[in-house]
Amino acid sequence: MDRIDKIQYYLDIAKKIGERSTCFRNKLGTIIIRNDQIVATGYIGACRKTKDCLEREECLRDKLEINHGERYEICRSVHAEQNAIINAARSGASILGGEMYISGIKTNGEKIDTFPCYICKKMIINAGLKRVICSTKNGEYEIFSVDEWVNDWKEKDILDDQKKYGLDQNNK
Predict the structure, then answer these.
(1) Distance, CA of 135 to CA of 84 (rounded, Å)
(2) Nearest-10 crossing angle of helices 80-91, 6-18
(3) Which residue from 6, 45, 92, 96 lies 20 to 30 Å from 35 (Cα-Cα)?
(4) Cβ-based neighbours of 5, under 8 Å, separated by 6 or more
């Protein structure tokens, strides 16, 4: 009997969580693992108790013709990674030294690279996570060391990142 490997298991859970997303563009989910246990989850969604894009029946960023990966402040939603970190804090769960798994798809079912944006990367670094595992559009995954991000940003700048959210999605 074949058994799914643990990374794919966690990515599958993250993808399922992403189905709760309220974004017209993407359905992304995130889980944070610490000591081989899920301690927090998050998906793309508007701030608690506010109207999301589905309720408003429009995407503000699409309406304003803003490309993926740009002008994050013009969005009703909070990213899945951010929500997972926030949810850990709300519940009092420590994520220090943990791992984040990110998976999801475009709302039309197309696979995407689920690399974090700059804002999420900064939050991941400051939260003290050690690794980030992202599903990719080729059906595999990529593992990132948060310490490597920090070292890269010491030598270069965040704009030099080769693997960032939205890079593969701007050709509509």
Answers:
(1) 17
(2) 100
(3) 45
(4) none
- CB count within 10 Å of CB 136 equals 16
Sheet holding 37-43, edge to edge: 37-43, 26-34, 99-106, 131-135, 141-145
The rounded percent of the chain whose pLDDT value lies above 90 is 76
Q: From CA 149, how far away is CA 139, in angstroms rounded?
A: 23
Q: Is the separation of the CB atoms in 68 and 46 below 8 Å?
A: no
Q: Decide: 30 and 17 in contact? Cβ < 8 Å.
A: yes
Query: Backbone dihedral region of 65: left (phi > 0), alpha (psi from -120 to 50 degrees) or beta?
Result: left
Tokens in use for 149?
A: 């991000």
